[in-house]
Specification:
The complex is a heterodimer of chains A (about 160) and B (about 170). Chain A is of the alpha/beta class and about 160 residues long. Chain A has 6 helices and 4 strands, in the order ααβαβαβαβα. Chain A has one domain: 3-Layer(aba) Sandwich (Rossmann fold), CATH 3.40.50. Chain A is about 35% helix and about 10% strand. In chain A, helix 3 (about 40-45) links the parallel strand 1 (about 30-35) and strand 2. The longest helix of chain A is centred in the last third of the chain and has 16 residues, at about 135-150. Chain A is elongated, with a radius of gyration of 18 Å. Chain B has about 170 residues and is α/β, with parallel strands linked by helices. Chain B has one domain (about 1-155): Beta Polymerase, domain 2 (2-Layer Sandwich), CATH 3.30.460.80. In chain B, a hairpin with a 4-residue loop joins strand 4 (about 70-80) and strand 5 (about 85-90). At the A-B interface, helix 4 of A face loops of B.
Chain lengths: ~160, ~170
Amino acid sequence: MGLETIFGKSWATSKMEYVINWARKFSFFDYPFVTACCGMEFMSTFASTYDIARFGAEFPRFSPRQADVLFVVGTVNQKLAPVLRMTYEQMVEPKWVLSFGACATSGGFYDNYAVVDGIDKIIPVDVYIPGCPPRPKAVLDALIKLQEHVQREKLIKGK
Amino acid sequence: MELTGIIKEKFEKSILSSSVFYDNETIVIRKEDVFDVIKFLKDEQSFDFLMDVTAVDYKGYPDRNDETRFEIVYNLFSYKNNKRLIIKTLVDEKDLTVNSITSLYHSADWHEREVYDMFGIKFINHPNLKRILMYDEFVGHPLRKDYPFKKRQPRINLRDVGKNEEEK
């Protein structure tokens, strides 16, 4: 319709929002906050068999300041709660949180004095992955869900 | 039964009771004499390894009362003789103090701190008696039978999440 007809095939028009979200969703830099046995499945997901690099999220940054997706992998107890909140606050916008496994999502089978029942009591969460621990395929599914979520985001209104 | 006999010879008044379960001897000793007995076992019976120090809360048990509410359990092992020995002692609810054996076994340091953290039993002459697992702001001792099961003590202010409404 518009500019393509004037300038030929060397142009393409799109929405700014669409392009930025498209770029963001295929280059996640994740910060693994690994505390428990779910970490094994996390490593498996990142290794060559399941290969999370196919979705553009293969590069874990070990500083929250360089990351935009926080993977909370495993049990978070009350003693650790301030650390998790500080880690989240250190990340720059735009940022997303992925709750990995039953313990991070709801406390799992730990219904006791020491464990926070769900990290959503500490920080906002975008995607929850069920399972104890979740299969790598479930993690990849969650990552695709997160990509869809990112694609739908509005730039002007913020999150 | 041989170890019980040896200890009985030396500390006759200290032994409250003893039992054997498949060659595994258990001796219950008066609280005041625990340090001396373990020192004797280490120096003269070559019990060179302290495997564990832990405690049990017997609140509400029919054959127990406040004076015998807590029990501290020492698991000793001898590499030389390949022998195990369990030493127990009873702690009164009103006097929650025991002599520390950190000067005999360095491994007792963290074990005793854990017992202090979880049960509130104080160890006299311990070099650094403070909580080891829970945070310092934590009130109470969670492994006691009278610690409320549903009680939570968050370290930071938790967010309000909808699913928690019914619990309030």
